[in-house]
Amino acid sequence: MMDMECSLKFLTSICMILFLLGSYAAYESVRLVDAREDNEKHYVTLQVDASNATGRPIPETLFGIFFEEINHAGAGGLWAELVSNRGFEAGGQIIPSSIWPWSIIGDESTISVVTDRSSCFERNKIALRMEVLCNSSGCPSEGVGVYNPGYWGMNIEEGKKYKVTLYVRSTGDIDVSVSLTSSNGSLTLASEQIIALASEVSKWTKKEVLLEANGTDDGARLQLTTTKNGSIWLDQVSAMPVDTYKGHGFRNDLFQMMVDLKPRFIRFPGGCYVEGAWLSNAFHWKETVGAWEERPGHFGDVWNYWTDDGLGHFEFFQLAEDLGAAPIWVFNSGNSHNNQVETASIMPFVQEALDGIEFARGDANSTWGSVRAAMGHPKPFGLKYVAVGNEDCGKKYYKGNYLEFYNAIKKAYPDIKIISNCDGSSQPLDHPADYYDFHVYTPAKALFSMSHMFDNTSRDGPKAFVSEYAARGKPDANKGNLLAALGEAGFLLGLEKNSDVVGMVSYAPLFLNTNDRRWLPDAIVFNSSHLYGTPSYWVQQFFTESSGATLLSSTMEGNSSYVEASAISFQSNGSDYIQIKAVNFANVTVELKVKMTGLDSKVSAKKKKVLTSASVMDENSFSNPEMIAPQETILVMPEGNLTFVLAPYSFASLDLLKES
Ligand code: AHR
């Protein structure tokens, strides 16, 4: 007893010390970023050469997005499927297996539920068997059966329609209620019966019902219940909202958040998700195509959750097409986090990559192009970029494997641009590549100071693909605050100015379902019914005019170590604009004077957009989703005096219209 008390006291003291150390670290970090703090106004001048003749074209594909299946970005996120573990495969192949998150309605005296391997689908044999055993007085009036809560509750909205599809088999007649209900089943939001004779369902039969909700609940569940004794097998139970983007299965609100970033490319499906902790759990694209019912699903062992792979290889290309973004497919390089394939044995992986490319862009009569065509897209998808692996450069067989992929792909598809995992920013690559992948996660201040990191990169050789960047770390970036976003703004301005050697840029990760946080911070945060953009999301929106624009030569004068700025010219709706973007990464007010030379017409200030907040540590939340979001104002400013005030810790853009 005494010993326990001592240990408790000891533990409490340790915790106190850790707490104090943590608080000091937090204080120190904020103090450091607040180093520039005084009441004086500071002055900087941006000298801009506004003539397009001396400007430099910014790549058409500079700003894009990176979608990884992490934080339930797809399963329980963008992919609108409401049922989780729809094929009962998540519990593994040894039977009887766990059916989580399915649960049983009824007790041992009325129902027994097990899994067996009787499915009609070859690649996913597990099915659910319900023995309904109600005694002579019958089943409870509400029936017995199973329910699925979806991904932490289904968002069911009044007046909307939901298509439920399931496969069923029975030794007798069936009468099954398919219902959407409140989270505890007490309130029915929609219900239909599936009634069939034994002769019809003695073999696996597909059934579909359309449910129209008469109420709203964002924590709803799907119930399959009956009051009839007998054996019923169920498999591949899906509930899809009818209202998804173009009917393509993407959750509308999350899709819109991506559209608003005007992404010029989309990198997918990972990240570490592509690698797997083990190769057996990596993303194998062939397992994710064809009829959804026949996909086996897989356990993503890096982010530790099951996906039914409704969002598969085809759907990623469809997503890219719907976004008007160039697809960038990342495939496994024969490397996972724990095991690797030697170069001597890599050919099956190379063939898998070639087949995956053929699936995307082969004609409808080719072996894999025909699979795509059968899925409803006879026209090839425009795949022009592939990445060989993710963060694998240091691994023993990476370079050997890479060369096999590179040579085979260039031979079959000379126009495809190939992205290497090895960093070419400080020294030339020792192997051929069109781009090299560059990832950076670091505290906000460090990221801000990396805005010049590509200034000295060799102008020859492959360009950088900064496919993952974010200010990260506690308390510095926390769950995604203004400080992190401003660090990123500085970094991005540097990338924009170095877009002769940086070809593509995307933030990571894109999405977070708050019910399963695997990585913080993220750009878009959501649950079943709500969402918001973090300040990092909004910073990206400042760059929507940049891809394909012209970078104007600009220089900063004055004490500007905490100010970064850029100038571009672009066209919109037939008009010519100049845009100045500037970030102030200090707790001081800065007056920025813009001096322009080389103008061939008059300019008038049109619009100012500002991102800031009362405290640099502020974050958005479900209850205050746009506390930190760009504020737009119409500007009136005389041509000869383009001066604007940068509030402490703020990011601003100024649009100037060139008069014709
Ligand atoms: O973006 C989260 C992870 O960070 C990615 O999966 C990986 O590539 C990187 O380490």
UniProtKB/TrEMBL annotation:
<keyword id="KW-0732">Signal</keyword>
<dbReference type="InterPro" id="IPR008979">
    <property type="entry name" value="Galactose-bd-like_sf"/>
</dbReference>
<dbReference type="GO" id="GO:0046556">
    <property type="term" value="F:alpha-L-arabinofuranosidase activity"/>
</dbReference>
<keyword id="KW-0325">Glycoprotein</keyword>
<comment type="similarity">
    <text>Belongs to the glycosyl hydrolase 51 family.</text>
</comment>
<keyword id="KW-0272">Extracellular matrix</keyword>
<keyword id="KW-0964">Secreted</keyword>
<dbReference type="InterPro" id="IPR055235">
    <property type="entry name" value="ASD1_cat"/>
</dbReference>
<dbReference type="Pfam" id="PF22848">
    <property type="entry name" value="ASD1_dom"/>
</dbReference>
<dbReference type="Pfam" id="PF06964">
    <property type="entry name" value="Alpha-L-AF_C"/>
</dbReference>
<feature type="domain" description="Alpha-L-arabinofuranosidase C-terminal">
    <location>
        <begin position="467"/>
        <end position="650"/>
    </location>
</feature>
<dbReference type="InterPro" id="IPR010720">
    <property type="entry name" value="Alpha-L-AF_C"/>
</dbReference>
<dbReference type="InterPro" id="IPR051563">
    <property type="entry name" value="Glycosyl_Hydrolase_51"/>
</dbReference>
<dbReference type="InterPro" id="IPR017853">
    <property type="entry name" value="GH"/>
</dbReference>
<protein>
    <recommendedName>
        <fullName>non-reducing end alpha-L-arabinofuranosidase</fullName>
        <ecNumber>3.2.1.55</ecNumber>
    </recommendedName>
</protein>
<dbReference type="InterPro" id="IPR013780">
    <property type="entry name" value="Glyco_hydro_b"/>
</dbReference>
<keyword id="KW-0378">Hydrolase</keyword>
<dbReference type="GO" id="GO:0046373">
    <property type="term" value="P:L-arabinose metabolic process"/>
</dbReference>
